[in-house]
Write a structure and sequence with these properties.
220 residues; seven-stranded mixed beta barrel
């Protein structure tokens, strides 16, 4: 079996959603002072590569610990949307090729190459009709962007006036009791079909949690 790490590094150099807590990793104990090493972590529940629970958006939605652990080992299929421009919606026609047999659709935009920069927030996103189509067919969704909806910015190099408000893609998918895996990276490495293991940290009542996302492919 071949494995591919699809996780962004969890450190202070990465991008967080505007207004979310920053990620920091600082020394707490050191070999020189204490004879052992411990680091102190500070981050939000949606820092780094992470999984969104329905309760992230919906007051009555399920938390992550209400899902069976097996949920987070997905039969995944990838579609290529690397031709999508900054802040451009990915419409129904782009996702309609998703294989019905898969559990999770991975949308590759290539935007992970902008991780740690302001441009990362100008990512493409799912249009409301694309998200609704995927939700109706029971897909979980993974993206190499911080958000399946457009991310607001004070200043942007690609402002649009037609962006949907109110997290419609989140609401369509999480409202259908699906989960989202956001801030993936390296999506060009595995083949188009693979198993995506994205086990979230076991935080009680979590609206989201960081995860180590790994693609697994059986060797021929």
């Amino acid at each position: 079996m071949t494995t591919y790490d699809l996780s962004q590094p969890l450190d202070g150099e990465g991008t967080v959603y505007p207004g979310d807590p920053a990620v920091s990793v600082t020394p707490h104990a050191t070999h020189e002072r204490d004879g052992y090493r411990v680091s102190e972590l500070a981050l939000g529940s949606h820092g780094g590569t992470h999984v969104d629970a329905p309760s992230h958006i919906l007051p009555d939605g399920r938390d992550l610990d209400e899902f069976d652990l097996a949920t987070f080992a997905f039969d995944a299929a990838r579609i290529d949307c690397t031709d999508a421009a900054a802040r451009e919606p990915i419409n129904h026609d782009a996702v309609a090729s998703a294989p019905n047999a898969s559990e999770l659709l991975v949308v590759r935009t290539g935007w992970s190459e902008h991780w740690g920069t302001d441009r990362y927030l100008d990512h493409p996103y799912l249009s409301p009709d694309a998200a609704a189509w995927l939700a109706e067919r029971g897909f979980h969704v993974g993206v190499d962007t911080p958000n399946v909806d457009p991310t607001p910015r004070q200043e942007s190099t690609a402002e649009r006036t037609d962006e949907a408000e109110g997290f419609p893609a989140h609401r369509a998918l999480l409202g259908n009791d699906r989960v989202l895996v956001e801030n993936l990276t390296g999506l060009g490495a595995p083949p188009e079909r693979f198993e995506l293991c994205a086990y979230p940290l076991p935080i009680p009542d979590a609206d989201g949690a960081p995860a180590r996302a790994v693609a697994r492919v059986d060797d021929p």
